[in-house]
Design goal:
mainly alpha, 73% helix, 6 helices
Length: 120
């Protein structure tokens, strides 16, 4: 897989979380596992960041993307836990523009785009 494909697949996969979470909050999808969602090495991009990305990205940039990626997965897990605790209105707020998930997602995707642009 090319470097461009790696970034694109990572962006698409992580962008899909918003719809998965929205459906989960609304009770339209099966249960999610917060512990699994929180693992930042459980996805293809996370494994790449912990492995081969070291050959492509400057250490500081790789560190930033790793940090933002881990924060993204923590935000997903936090939202799943809110739903599991029956705190649906707080979960919906986390998905909103000013919410914790929204902020973590935006920061992560911005870091991935910077990394993609730096590796051209």
């Amino acid at each position: 897989m090319s470097l461009r494909e790696t970034y694109l697949r990572g962006i698409v996969a992580h962008s899909r979380w918003k719809w998965r979470l929205r459906n989960y909050v609304d009770g339209k999808s099966p249960a999610l596992d917060a512990a699994l969602a929180e693992k930042d090495d459980g996805c293809e991009l996370g494994r790449w960041l912990r492995g081969d990305a070291g050959q492509v990205l400057a250490p500081a940039l790789r560190g930033e993307v790793l940090e933002k990626h881990a924060a993204f997965h923590r935000a997903v897990a936090d939202l799943v836990r809110l739903v599991q605790a029956g705190r649906h209105s707080e979960a919906r707020a986390a998905l909103g523009c000013e919410g914790g998930y929204a902020a973590a997602c935006s920061e992560f995707l911005e870091a991935v785009v910077r990394a993609r642009d730096a590796s051209r």
